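Protein: Methane oxygenase PmoA
Species: Caulobacter vibrioides
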Amino acid sequence: MRLLAPATAVVFALLAAPSVLADPAIDKRVDAVFSDDAVILTEAGKTVLVYRTKPLDPATEPGRANYVSPLYAPDGTALTEDKPGDHPHHRGVWWAWMKVQANGKSVADGWYMKNLSYFVREKRFLGDAEGGGTLTLEVDWIVNSGPELAYVARETTKVTVRPLKAGARRVEFDTMITSRVEALGLGGSEDDRGFGGFSIRLVDPEHLTFSSGGKTIMPNGAAINAGAAMGFAWSGGSNAPAWTIGLTCKANGQAVTRWMLYNDRSMQNCVFPGRAPLILKKDQTLRLEETVVIRPAAKKKL
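Structure follows.
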């Protein structure tokens, strides 16, 4: 039997048991555990999230990297799915577009992971004075649809985990995508939905309910214009998480208010920019900002 290296053994232990290490002497700050293909962010020894920096199967899925899954609730409940049977291209928490264009020509499909891979060339973590911490990743977008590999974009993503407050967890994503070609195009699906951008595949989507601005939102198979914040909760189901999720999204500082929502087997998406591609000139940057807040669900009165 081959023995695992100490660092690898720690990573496997954390992945297998997100609520392990309950010793009260453990530092309660947010921290990071690095391995070759992932970074695990923890708080008081419990796994908060796993950031996948390399594909687990690079031979068949070279584009399955640069995303978060699982994302955990404070009690260790996994809230996201990776590679579900109904939509195997879904990746937990990720950002991708069907249209990736270089100089007016379609060169890749990041949604279905065709001809685009992500090289995470740098990963670093820094704690803060409040007990939270930020993981920073420097990523190169590589297109392989032509005779030679093409470097089309540089990405810097920051994932900040705030310390638990009143039982709630706050995770902030801040992504800067900078064009390295004369014109980089990013666009959504080629239909009226136009979905693309920041997406999250939540567990048990059949039992999800949605709300925005104090109103219940009903998915209808189309993109919906709603408020700047969307709430997700599970209703019914024997294994439904006892948590709610709040999500806000911004693109270049402006709130995204168009949503693609499903309460069947699919993902949830802040729709940006839509079907028509956003064009970034060389060295021009798109900034995406998202905040996820995980709170305990209110207990029903008997």
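Remarks: Residues 1-17 have pLDDT under 50 and may be disordered.
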